[in-house]
Structure formats: structure tokens, C-alpha cells
Amino acid sequence: MDKKQKKQGQKRKGLGGLSPEKRKLLKQLIMKKASEEMRAEMQKRQKEKDEYLQKVLPVLKLDGLNKDQSAAKVKELYQKYCQIEEDIYDLEFKVARQDVEMQELTLKCNDVRGKYVKPVLKKVTKSEKTVKAPKNNPDWRENLKPKTDHAEANAEATLEA
């Protein structure tokens, strides 16, 4: 009786205590259903795309056109091409401008919240000589850089010239 009470008091974990075989079968069924839904969605999108292209781009009929008519058709198609290129350029410029605005707004939000992006710091290796002062020489800072007298260097440069 203790075991039955203990089992009733326990909470079920995961998928209700299913056996591994049933769990595997359930996952397979879920994946199969999801793949079928994805295929149906892809076919729906392709159908919508084809319908849109048929509406926007009618079938090009060039049969039976004389030289003047074909030249006029070429000019018409070139005008459509130019218009499409202008639209593409405008949209690309608009998207680039929106990206810049989004970055600026993100920075402003971070400033308001007080969250800043921490820059990645480079590791700097320092030898023990530069970190610790030698015990025997109290003027250790003077030994780090050689002394040069700027006045002597300037005088020598003027003499050579």
C-alpha cells in the first residue's frame, strides 16, 4: 500500500510517464504532421507567388510583330525595366536608412536604461619587471625609459644642417 500511495503522490514527469517506445512513436507522428503542414504551406506560398507574377507580368507575345512594332515593344519593356530599377534603388535606400535609425534608437534606449555594450578588452601581458619595482633601486621609474636631452638633440640637428 505504501507504494501505491507513493505513486499517487508523485507528480508525472514529461509526457505523463510514457514509455520510451511510445514517446518515440509520438515524436515521429508529431514530426510527420509538422512536415506535412510545412509542405502544404510551401505549396500555398508558391501558388500565391505564381498568381502574383502572372498578374504583374503578363505573357510576352512577340509573334507577328513587324520591325516598328517590335522596336516599340522593346522601348516599352526598357521603360518598365528602368522603373523597376528605380523602385529597387529607392527600397534599398529606405531599408538602409531604417537600419541606421534602428541602431540610433537602440543606442538611445540603452542610454536610457543604463545598459552599455562592454567592449572586448585585449589581453596585455606584462612582465614582472615592469609590474614590480626592484627592491634595491628606489628610482626604478627613471630606468624604464632612457633619458634624452632634447636640447642637445636639437643642437646637433641644427649643426648638421
Helix/strand layout:
Elements: H1 2-9, H2 20-56, H3 67-113, H4 128-131, H5 150-160
Overview of this protein structure:
There is one protein chain. With 161 residues, the protein is an all-alpha fold. 66% of the residues lie in helices and 0% in strands. Among the domains are: 17-59; 62-116. It is built from 5 helices and no strands.
Q: Which short descriptors sum up this protein?
A:
161 residues, mainly alpha, flat
How would a crystallographer describe the biggest sheet?
Answer: none
Rounded mean pLDDT score:
79
Counting DSSP H or I runs of 4 or more residues, the number of helices is 5
* Uncertain stretches of 5 or more adjacent residues: none
What is the percent of helical residues? 55-70%
Number of strands: 0
C-alpha termini separation: 109 Å
Q: What is the overall silhouette?
A: flat
Kindly name the structural category.
Answer: mainly alpha
> What's the order of the H and E elements?
HHHHH
The rounded Rg comes to 39 Å
Quaternary arrangement of the chains shown? single chain
Task: Bin the strand percentage.
Answer: under 5%
